[in-house]
What does this fold into?
Amino acid sequence: MITDSGSFVTQFARHPLLVGALLPSGTGLARDITASIPRTGHPLVVELGPGTGPFTREIQRRLDGRGHHLAVELNPRFAARLADRYPAVEVVHGDAAALDGLLATQRSPYADVVVSGLPWAVFTAQRQRTVMGAVCRALGAGGVFTTFAYRHALPTPAARRFRRLLDDRFEEVTVGRTVWRNLPPALVYHCRRALQPNG
It folds into this structure.
């Protein structure tokens, strides 16, 4: 954990708009954000922005050898470390905005669950729309999208804009409890029934 924290600080200092956080997410947040992963069957789970893997570890625990776990990471150092640490995960060094194209190479073109660790609040409006469009196109009819927001950042314009985007792109958006023990405290959005974007 100390190594991961140090890596996060270093990468945040070098690429603050790509990393978006000083510390990895905690176990409580990881449990909440992965709660939609089914306990049975062989789901295709996509993880966006896994960083050093706090959500990856919990996704692997929940899958317990079932299904397929695809992790898309833009930071090359994080991607390399993740691939070494979790050999059962298909790690792709790439952009979340290309998710639907990446899924075209999979056995199933649609994800059952998309778990996002992306720093939505630091994205521009255009970047938010572009990545969310790819997410919506990648989700199957019963697919679920989960992401998180830091509690202290909710009043910021970018965070409010992102929440409106979720409401525009999904028929159902529910907000989970605040995970106060996360640093900083965070909450999870659970989004279902994606609406396909117009262009």
